[in-house]
């Protein structure tokens, strides 16, 4: 499975919709951010400190001012001249970014997803291997 299809799969949620004929119809929810917004997924926090101590949930939350998240979907516009979509958010799809802890609006069906204004993105984070 390609990276882009994994990201699309992460932005969708399968749900059941009752049918009047007593059959269940499966539906998928997909989020397309509008304006200068991005859809991000909050990664799981480590429960161990750098020194090897295990931290309770309350201690992790009180120390944390920001969140490291992955951009799953970006706002885009159709470019008629080039014939493809253009990212209008200015933040690369798939990037790891830093946002304030309380930034964005939670997606109702998944607590790990948030829609965040691009102005709330503090930094794009990249890892560099050190020899």
Categorize the overall geometry: globular
Distance between the termini: 31 Å
Q: What is the succession of H and E elements?
A: HEEEHEEEEEEE
How many strands appear in the DSSP assignment?
10
* CATH topology type: 10 Kd Chaperonin, Protein Cpn10, Chain O
Nearest-integer average pLDDT: 75
How many H/I helical runs?
A: 2
Spans of at least 5 consecutive residues with low confidence: 1-10
**Would you tell me the structural class of the helices and strands?**
mainly beta
The CATH fourth-level homologous superfamily: GroES chaperonin
Portion in strands? 35-45%
Described by strand count, sense and barrel closure, the largest sheet is: 6 strands, antiparallel
What is the second-level CATH architecture? Roll
The CATH C-level name is Mainly Beta
Q: In which order are the strands of the major sheet placed?
A: 8-9-3-4-7-10
Radius of gyration from the alpha-carbon trace, in angstroms:
18 Å
Helix content: 10-25%
How many distinct domains? 1
């Amino acid at each position: 499975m390609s990276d882009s299809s994994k990201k699309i799969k992460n932005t969708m949620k399968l749900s059941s919709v009752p049918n009047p004929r007593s059959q269940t119809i499966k539906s998928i929810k997909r989020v397309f951010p509008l304006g200068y917004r991005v859809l991000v997924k909050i990664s799981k926090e480590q429960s161990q400190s750098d020194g090897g101590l295990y931290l309770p949930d309350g201690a992790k939350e009180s120390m944390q001012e920001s969140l490291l998240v992955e951009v799953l979907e970006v706002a885009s516009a159709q470019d008629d001249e080039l014939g493809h979509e253009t990212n209008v958010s200015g933040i690369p799809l798939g990037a790891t970014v830093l946002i304030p802890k309380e930034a964005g609006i939670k997606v109702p069906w998944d607590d790990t997803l948030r829609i965040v204004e691009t102005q709330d993105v503090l930094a794009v984070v990249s890892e560099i291997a050190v020899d």
